[in-house]
Amino acid sequence: MRFIFYPLTILLLVLSSVDTFAQMEVQEAGVNKENLAVIYVNKGVSTHFVSPEKIEYVDVSIPDIAGDIPLPNTLRVKPTKEGASGVLTITTERFMVQYLLVYTEDLSKVYSRYNIPYSDVKSYLNPESDMTQSQLYDYCHKILLTNNNYYNVSSNKHGMRIRLNNIYTVDKYFFLDISLFNKTNIQY
């Protein structure tokens, strides 16, 4: 009986230590609120977060703080009650940033405008977009500068003419470089 009891005890100890180690790994993998940059807020001042890119998603996990996006790259938050504090998450096409919003009565600590620096951001690959807006603009600009590869691919009808200049593909995107000519009195 003693020979069965000792191996069984050792097996249980090993299994419980593996479970504890797995729990420690999960706890260490996350970001603690203590490690987040602190932004002080007050109910008398709206705080504007200005992002270098278009804001795609915002999570204001605090019910006592109201927020909206008045411009594509600007987030406005304002506490509705005193003492409102919590985590704010801002996500763009290429990065994610989190801040710890802390309510303060000292108005000298409160930002009315906070430009998000690149030192605060964490890289993020947004599954919704393969190319960022700036990459799309750059690629379209390069297309405009290239010479035509297709000739005599056009259609004329009712004073309108459309001409195909080039066709490009990048990943899942198709780019058609076309020219439109209008010889009618109808504006477009």
Structure description:
By secondary structure, the chain is an alpha+beta fold. The chain folds into 3 domains: 1-30; 33-123, Sandwich (Immunoglobulin-like), CATH 2.60.40; 133-182, no CATH class. It contains 2 helices and 12 strands. The chain has helices spanning 2-29, 133-145; strands at residues 37-41, 47-50, 55-60, 65-71, 74-79, 86-92, 95-103, 113-115, 122-123, 154-157, 160-170, 173-182. The strands form 3 sheets. Strands 1, 3, 6, 7 and 9 form a 5-stranded mixed sheet that branches. Strands 4-5-2-8 form a 4-stranded mixed sheet, with no helix packed on it. Strand 11 (160-170) and strand 12 form a beta hairpin. The protein is elongated, with a radius of gyration of 28 Å.
Question: Nutshell version of this structure?
Answer:
By secondary structure, the protein is α+β, with helices and mostly antiparallel strands. 22% of the residues lie in helices and 39% in strands. The strands form three sheets. Strands 1, 3, 6, 7 and 9 form a five-stranded mixed beta sheet that branches. The chain has a four-stranded mixed beta sheet with strand order 4-5-2-8, with no helix packed on it. A three-stranded antiparallel beta sheet has the order 10-11-12, covered by helices on one side.
